[in-house]
Design brief:
Elements (H helix, E strand, L loop, with lengths): L3 H4 L14 E7 L16 E7 L4 H7 L5 H16 L26 H17 L1 H12 L4 H4 L3 H21 L13
Antiparallel strand pairs: 1-2
Length: about 180
């Protein structure tokens, strides 16, 4: 007689989805050295396990739906977004009464100012709608399924995202503008 614990199916919790799915992908070798180029023990890319459910960008890159330049542009957008503190710089609330020992508000750092200027430039390049999509998916980490329910909406949203990533990749120099050939 089979053990009941091995034959029972696991219960699924409503609304819960597994957040980790590892997949082998090729990534840049952090120990690559140009002085040892061409040796078998010094590859430019190595295999690594990556959680492809970490973000929508990682999932698209692992499925080869976006290229390396688009992934780099999304990573830069995310770094800039996080440098700004997510939604950008906060303002002082004059309606609140100051409390002793509360301390002064921290001023904006140079890094935050540069990130804000770069995000403003990205908004001008992308436009309002594409920037909103980019900030939700690449910046805040929303999944595409959270923003779009039907297959058609998801496809359209993914196309907007990929077009925006193309523009940012060209603007930030990760991809050429089509007037130069890629060197082998």
């Amino acid at each position: 007689m089979a053990d009941k614990t091995t034959t029972r199916k696991k219960k699924k919790i409503d609304g819960w989805q597994e957040k980790a799915k590892l997949q082998q992908v090729y990534v840049d070798n952090p120990y690559y050295s140009k002085s040892h180029d061409g040796e078998g023990s010094n590859p430019v890319k190595i295999k690594a396990s990556v959680n492809i459910k970490e973000s929508a960008i990682t999932t698209l890159a692992a499925r080869k739906l976006i290229d390396d330049s688009q992934k780099e542009a999304a990573d830069k957008f995310r770094r800039l977004w996080e440098a700004m503190g997510g939604a950008g710089a906060g303002s002082f609330d004059y309606s609140r009464e100051p409390v002793d020992g509360g301390g002064a508000r921290e001023p904006l750092t140079e890094r935050q100012i540069r990130a804000g200027m770069e995000l403003k430039r990205a908004q001008e390049v992308l436009g309002v709608r594409a920037y909103d999509i980019m900030s939700k998916i690449a910046g805040q980490g929303y999944a595409i399924q959270e923003l779009a329910k039907t297959h058609r909406e998801r496809t359209t949203l993914t196309d907007y995202l990929k077009d925006g990533l193309d523009e940012l990749a060209r603007t930030w120099g990760y991809a050429n503008r089509g007037n130069r050939r890629k060197s082998a």
